[in-house]
């Protein structure tokens, strides 16, 4: 009787095995396809020029004519610090854009491709930050804990200088505009005074001139006749 019960359960078990295999195959194919699509998406940021410069200096070969071997450590530190500054700027952009991208995705204003690009940029930045810390500790012990603090200060100072330069440029432009405006106001005021003077002269010229006879008539006053005694 037990053998008959097991024979009756063979078909459901076979169905479950086939269904599980189909789901696993579909999931694997889907993940591979999504990974291929994600790899073909355009990167969020452009090429990291500072990282490429640092890697070029790091792997520079010594001169063949017996010169000094490789790049000086101070140059490597400066290049790595500039790389960290670039990473700080990109990290600020990612933090600024994350909330906006999430809100747009929830409203359906953007597609999944943009969100996948953003998530890939986040992962790349995490790997980049870890790589910079590792390189900093290799150049100087415990420098990895302080390099991004120094990079943040440099980035903040650069941003402040840019803001001051923009303010100075706006001030110069506003000063030029005010100079032109003041000249226009002065020209309009002088023109108005000239028009008033011309109007006054025209009014004076159009008034009738008094003749000498009219003046004598105006001066003579009739005196009352004296009574006869």
TrEMBL record:
Segments crossing the lipid bilayer: 12-30
BP GO terms, sorted: post-translational protein targeting to membrane, translocation
GO CC terms, sorted: Sec62/Sec63 complex
Pfam families tied to this protein: Sec66
Biased segments, Low complexity type: 197-212
Region of interest: Disordered: 197-229
Keywords associated with the record: Membrane, Transmembrane, Transmembrane helix
Cross-referenced InterPro entries: Sec66
Name of the protein described by the UniProt record: Translocation protein (Sec66)
Domain of life the protein comes from: Eukaryota
């Amino acid at each position: 009787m037990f053998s008959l019960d097991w024979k009756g359960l063979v078909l459901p078990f076979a169905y479950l095995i086939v269904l599980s295999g189909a789901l696993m195959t579909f999931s694997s194919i889907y993940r591979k396809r999504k990974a291929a699509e994600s790899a073909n998406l355009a990167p969020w940021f452009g090429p990291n020029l500072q990282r490429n410069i640092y890697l070029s200096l790091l792997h520079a070969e010594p001169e063949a004519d017996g010169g000094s071997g490789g790049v000086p450590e101070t140059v490597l530190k400066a290049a790595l610090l500039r790389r960290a500054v670039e990473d700080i700027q990109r990290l600020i952009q990612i933090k600024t854009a994350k909330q906006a991208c999430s809100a747009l995705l929830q409203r359906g204003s953007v597609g999944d491709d943009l969100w996948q690009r953003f998530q890939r940029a986040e992962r790349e930045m995490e790997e980049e930050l870890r790589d910079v810390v590792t390189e900093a500790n290799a150049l100087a012990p415990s420098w990895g804990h302080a390099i991004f603090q120094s990079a943040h200060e440099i980035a903040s100072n650069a941003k402040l200088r840019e803001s001051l330069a923009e303010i100075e440029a706006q001030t110069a432009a506003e000063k030029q505009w005010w100079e032109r405006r003041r000249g226009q106001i002065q020209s309009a005021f002088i023109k108005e005074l000239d028009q008033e003077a011309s109007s006054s002269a025209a009014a004076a010229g159009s008034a009738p001139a008094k003749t000498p006879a009219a003046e004598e008539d105006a001066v003579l006053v009739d005196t009352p006749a004296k009574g006869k005694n």
